[in-house]
Amino acid sequence: MAHTDSALESSQDLYGDDHISSSEQTPLRPDAFVLSDEEKIERISSNVRDILLTLGMDLDDDSLKGTPNRVAKMFVREIFGGLHPDRRPKSSTFSNKYKYGEMLVEKNITVYSTCEHHLLPIVGRAHIAYISNGSVVGLSKMNRIVDYYAKRPQVQERMNIQIVRELQKVLGTQDVACVIDAKHLCVNSRGIRDVDSSTVTAEYGGRFKEEAVRREFLDYINLETEF
Predict the structure, then answer these.
(1) For residue 4, which of 27, 128, 194, 206 sits 20 to 30 Å off, Cα-Cα?
(2) What is the per-residue pLDDT for 23?
(3) Checking DSSP bridges between strand 121-131 and strand 176-184, what pairing results, if any?
(4) Catalytic residues
(5) How deeply is 161 buried, as exposed, middle or buried, from its count of CB atoms within 10 A (0-12, 13-18, 19+)?
């Protein structure tokens, strides 16, 4: 076991803080949903309690005694709630009866996610566009799709791709694009502690791979929104 642990640590040291992404799909075990939410909360609560005790915290203190259960419920029901396929948003589409043929852009969608390498927050904005080929989707559904894929341990590139793939499937078109600009607290609050840096990723499908169409989308993102 000691040799195995040493090999694992050496492998982790090799990558260090490098940004590693394994695939488009969130890495889940086949038995990921065998346990109920309540069973997961109970197990995670016990594990968080062990972590805090190992760190030397006094869990009899009034401020800390409820922390393990609060963290467990937050993990299962909130910040990692997007792992469960039952929470996938239902995205009804409608016929484009008004024959709108230009791109539709929804920008500044709030992103709250969690870096899967250090379990620290990713906070930023997503900008989405699509060109209808006969179907349209409710505006709030795009926010819900972003929220669903954000609520899991993530890599920003993967999240970007997952959002685009989902909208392509819902709308029945490849003409979908998404740009995400986000701060990673694993960079901003630890390690290099560069508080000003952010990460920008993009995924372009169909006509958005054309330079002129992509440029139009990016110009829309840069427009000042006034109320």
Answers:
(1) 27
(2) 77
(3) antiparallel
(4) 115-118, 156, 184, 186
(5) buried
pLDDT, residue 19, reads 54
Q: Is 96 helix (H, G, I), strand (E, B) or coil?
A: coil
Task: Please give the structure tokens belonging to residue 30.
Answer: 């086949």
pLDDT at 18 over 70: no
| pLDDT at res. 97 | 83
For 165-208, write each residue's pLDDT tens digit: 999 999 999 999 999 999 999 999 998 899 999 999 999 999 99
Domains 33-79 and 93-221 in one fold? no
Residue-range domain boundaries for the chain: 33-79, 93-221
Give the CATH number of domain 93-221. Answer: 3.30.1130.10
- Full-model pTM: 0.88
Distance CA 83, CA 64 (A): 27
For residues 50 and 83, give the distance between their C-alpha atoms in angstroms, rounded to a whole number: 24
Sequence-distant (6+) residues with CB within 8 A of 83 are 26, 28, 32, 151, 152
Task: Work out the angle between the directed axes of helices 156-171 and 139-150 (0-180°, nearest 10).
Answer: 140
Q: Which CATH number fits domain 33-79: 1.10.3720.10, 3.20.20.30, 1.10.286.10, 1.20.1530.20?
A: 1.10.286.10
